[in-house]
Design brief:
With 332 residues, the protein is an alpha/beta fold. The protein contains nine helices and 13 strands. Bound molecules: guanosine-5'-triphosphate (GTP), magnesium ion and zinc ion.
Length: 332
Amino acid sequence: MNREYQQGIIVEKSHQYFLVSMNDNSLLLCVLRGKLKRGKMLDFKGKSTAPIRRFSKNNLPEETDDTPQDRYHITVGDKVLVTAIDKENGVIEDVLPRSSKFSRAKAESTDEKILLANLDTVCVIFSVNDPYPNFNLLDRFLALAENNKIPALICFNKIDLHIPADVQKMIDIYQNIGYEVILSSAYTNSGFSNLTDAFGNMTLICGPSGVGKSSIINIIVPGAQQKTAEISKATLQGRQTTTGVRLFRMESGKWIADSAGISDLQFWKLPADEIAGAFRDLQPFIDNCKYIDCAHDASAEFCAVRNAVTNGKISEERYASYLTLIAEPSAE
Ligand SMILES: Nc1nc2c(ncn2[C@@H]2O[C@H](COP(=O)(O)OP(=O)(O)OP(=O)(O)O)[C@@H](O)[C@H]2O)c(=O)[nH]1
Ligand SMILES: [Mg+2]
Ligand SMILES: [Zn+2]
């Protein structure tokens, strides 16, 4: 590795701009070296000879919608090698290999969207009420996490509000399946030590809008909101963020990523034949169905999954959720 490169981690991305938290804790606003955009990685031996184009906050390169996307979809969470231009600006020379990523399913593989790289935990947050949880959406998040092979935990926030009986029933179901379920309230400040104990080295916080994701992050990373506002003002002002994901370093050194509320169900599609395998409670049964291409739906014969539902080994609610997901037109 060339000594002039410094290592950092991308904490925010907006079109072709990347905010990089350097190992010395400074923040650099970076663009990608042209060869990265064209899909060429450095070989870690030599420094690129291409001239560095100077830019400043007031003199950023023109931003257009048809900016060519970099081939690697370099994104928040990626570890990068940077050449600093000055105290505020730099150029990303290379991206280090990823250990994992969380992306939407690759049903249409030309348009993979990676939310976060190098994570080891997904924390799906819903509120027990206000808004009332959409459990089908929760199942979609969980299935996507399974599909991305990232361990998921569930947090039900706003327990200072009344917990409806139907919600309590579902909480029990998720616990029975084997998911860790944490109950929290950002208002009474409860549940957060359990929550942070369950976090890995890099945790993606996701869930629908209005459930308290940002409120929770603000408790876990004091000043996060203020920091976000300052960063956006200083660097990304007026520029629409494309990923909606922001990475924060917790005092413990662990990383936590806030993401914009997602209620767009379309976003979370998986190929139909991968859905059953991504339901943790259905998965153990799918190999016992008589037909290898069994869809485990109402018309399936000699289906071990349906049997398990009849015998009470799979909950009716989760099975109904599964049927909803496979019934979608483009889940093929
Ligand atoms: N009663 C109650 N309200 C809460 C709690 N946590 C957050 N809220 C409120 O819920 C609303 C939404 O909180 P946010 O933290 O902005 O929610 P979010 O999930 O980040 O929403 P998006 O950014 O839109 O995805 C705010 O009015 C908060 O004050 C809680 O534990 N209990
Ligand atoms: Mg938020
Ligand atoms: Zn079956």
